[in-house]
Amino acid sequence: MSQILKEYQVNFIEKKTPYFDESFWKKANCLTDFCSPWEKGEFSKIEFRGLWNLETLFFKFSVFDTDVYIDTTDESFKSISKSDRVELFFRTNQDINPYYCLEMDSAARIMDFKAFPNKNFDVVWKWPKTDLQVRSSNDTTSFSVEGQISLKSLKALDLIKNDTLEVGVFRAKFNRINDLQYKPTWITWVDPETADPNFHIASSFGRFILIK
Question: Global pTM?
Answer without folding.
Answer: 0.95
